[in-house]
Design goal:
Blueprint: E1 2-9, E2 14-22, E3 32-38, E4 44-49, E5 55-57, E6 64-70, H1 75-84, H2 89-95, E7 96-103, E8 106-115, E9 128-141, E10 167-183, E11 186-201, E12 208-214, E13 223-234, E14 238-249, E15 252-256, E16 262-269, E17 273-280, E18 287-294, E19 303-309, E20 313-335, E21 340-342, E22 348-361, H3 369-387, E23 400-406, E24 410-413
Antiparallel strand pairs: 1-2, 1-11, 2-3, 3-4, 4-8, 5-6, 6-7, 7-8, 8-9, 9-10, 10-11, 12-13, 12-22, 13-14, 14-15, 14-24, 16-17, 16-23, 17-18, 18-20, 19-20, 20-21, 20-22
Length: 415
């Protein structure tokens, strides 16, 4: 599985473009080239094709695409276009009826798909819908301190080796996009709006995870917050539970991760609450950070959409919202002779946004609020704790599903 996730945040709406290819070049029944687009008010489109040869990607730079249908019906024209893979934006607009193409600084797509919240992923398996996008992207920072700085591995330096499953790399923690999106005949034109990009690859996504992202804070020209955590596989049949948080602010990178002598605590509810705190005491700028994402579970139940799985392919496996209220604070630390203490005023003092992206993943994400209540009442606290990520408290609306301290790698048997 390889997947690319892009988020565009506009004042009136957010869009996510999720591109993926599964089991390419194999005889697997699960092989698939796919695009999912999440639109305003948790609407959702999908288009896919089991012919994975329609998908292409460059090895050493961010360039990828898939043409589902060409405008021409002449085979020699289609053969020549497919042989060339990447097209200039002008050629792409002229020749592609449906598909997508991502070049280092230009995103193009025409989706003739269907409502992804109902039916399957293949053509004709849902209510028809369309999306077209055409925009350029200006990078601000990848994962590290500024555009010109050497970028860091989001998952630590060992992530470049074939050690962990899956792999995760933030490629653009912050960027600005200019162009347009047409969503089911409604056109959105924009200039210099917040954009985010990441890539995932491996056998499948984690069995359980959370993720948060925001780069549209009120009153800040450049502030981006990204965090994630969950259970990933490591060698010898083991797994580990860990989390991290990264802040990019005016060219400075703050990273709280367990593999660099930092730590992170997280408290994530069944749905509607993500509280994340981190500390790093190494480097020239020790710091504390706290960020909270909140949404009303009844008013914003989130969108359940698909993700690749090793045994079932592209199935419903995660729940997202782009409408979480976010509060972020960051303090520098200084040593007082006995311990590190916060320096006031904070570097970032309760930065706010009402467009936070927040997610939970794994089987937990598929349950409705009523499912939570029924399951906890019928199974009891002890059984429910063993069933879900990582535990379900008695009141699923208020109590935490996850409260874990990540002081380092914690190994456990993979079940």
């Amino acid at each position: 599985m390889e997947g690319w996730y892009y988020r565009l945040t506009l004042p009136e709406a957010s869009f996510a473009f999720i591109l993926s290819v599964e089991d390419p070049g194999t005889q697997s029944d699960l092989k698939l080239a796919c695009i999912q687009v999440v639109g305003p008010e948790d609407t959702y489109l999908v288009q896919a094709d089991k012919d994975d040869t329609k998908f292409w990607a460059f090895q050493h730079q961010q360039a990828l695409g898939c043409t589902f249908e060409y405008c021409s019906s002449e085979e020699h024209v289609k053969k020549e276009l497919r042989r060339r893979s990447a097209l200039s934006p002008e050629e792409w607009r002229e020749n592609v009826q449906s598909g997508f193409q991502v070049l280092p600084y230009h995103w193009l797509g025409r989706v003739n798909g269907h409502d992804g919240s109902k039916g399957g992923v293949l053509p004709g398996e849902g209510v028809p819908g369309t999306c077209e996008f055409d925009f350029t992207v200006r990078p601000i920072c990848g994962w590290g301190s500024g555009e010109e700085a050497k970028q860091k591995s989001t998952g630590g330096w060992l992530a470049s080796c074939n050690v962990f499953e899956p792999h995760w790399q933030v490629t653009l923690a912050d960027a600005r996009a200019t162009g347009f999106v047409v969503w089911n005949k409604t056109r959105y034109d924009f200039e210099d709006q917040p954009f985010y990009a990441e890539k995932n690859w491996g056998a499948a996504l984690p069995s359980k995870w959370y993720w948060t992202q925001c780069n549209s804070f009120h009153g800040y020209d450049q502030l981006s917050a990204t965090s994630g955590g969950g259970v990933r596989k490591v060698p010898f049949g083991q797994s580990e539970s860990l989390g991290m948080i990264g802040i990019h602010h005016d060219g400075k990178f703050y990273e709280a991760v367990p593999w660099a002598n930092g730590f992170m605590d997280w408290n994530v509810s069944t749905w509607g609450y993500w509280n994340l705190t981190g500390r790093s005491t190494i480097g020239d700028t020790p710091f504390d950070v706290e960020v909270t994402y909140e949404c009303d579970p009844e008013r914003f139940p989130g969108l359940v959409f698909r993700a690749p799985t090793p045994d079932e392919g592209m199935v419903y496996f995660c729940r997202d919202t782009f409408e979480a209220n976010v509060t972020l604070s960051l303090w520098h630390l200084e040593w007082d002779g006995t311990q590190f203490v916060r320096v006031y005023p904070p570097v970032i003092d309760q930065a706010q946004s009402n467009q936070g992206g927040a997610e939970i993943g794994g089987k937990i994400s598929l349950l409705s609020l009523q499912n939570w209540r029924t399951m906890v009442e019928s199974l009891g606290q002890e059984i429910a704790t063993e069933t879900c990520y990582p535990c379900i408290a008695a009141n699923p609306i208020q109590d935490p599903v996850c409260e874990r301290k990540s002081m380092g790698n914690v190994s456990q048997k993979d079940t």
